[in-house]
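hey so u asked for the seq, here:
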Amino acid sequence: MQSNLEKNGLLGALPKPRQLRFEVFLVLALCLGQSAVYSIVSFLDKVSRAPLGEQTTSMNNPRSVRPWFDLTYQLLDIFFALIPVVLALYLLLRTLGIGPRQLGLDFAKPWRDLAWGTGLFLVMGLGTLGIYAAGRTLGVTTALSVVNLDDYWWTIPVLLLSAVRHAVLEEVIMLGFLFAYGKALRLSPWFIVIASALLRGSYHLYQGVGPFIGNALMGAIFGWFYLKYGRVMPLVIAHFLLDAVGFVGFALLGPAIGIGA
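ran it, structure tokens below
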């Protein structure tokens, strides 16, 4: 994957490393880096309070007891959570000359992307369930309550939009943005893979040790895939399917496998 600057032989025109590092800090501080800091603090709070296995982590919680205001808050959360993605794409284009198509964030190969995404979803889904079950058995993972919204006509659409939000935000930032900036900073590709994977795991640490390990492993596999094929879209699809099943499917199947709904 080459940027316009590389193709045109303009590497000398790249901004100084200080500017590149600041732009990485700015994007991460507005979204996933911020989440990682809060997640680590939340983890320390939980482990110092009671055994993790005795605690529950709630997700997709209501924001108001009034349905229309709850819907409004949910949609606003989704909208504003995607603003850092817009910022990241803007900085990529302005600073490195890299557009969405060069990240593979397009519909140029829909069937191939769907096939890869579905395959990754199946592999990651089974692995995630296994690591979650092991974490619960060992008492190092909290119980997950993944669907806490009331049963309204808009509940399922909002959960699906939330899955889209997580998929686009995490894969564009963790892969497209960080890998491009890491390359511009001349970092080792495998250093970028490992750093991105650990960051991905860290902002899931509030759920316990199991989700940290599971998401870090997923990040390493996704990073390897992106390094090899240079397309974000299959990974967005895989992540969306994971969250869609997690948010919607587990509302029905969760109690049977020990995940609260």
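Residues 1-12 have pLDDT under 50 and may be disordered. The beta strands are 56-58, 143-145.
lmk if thats what u needed
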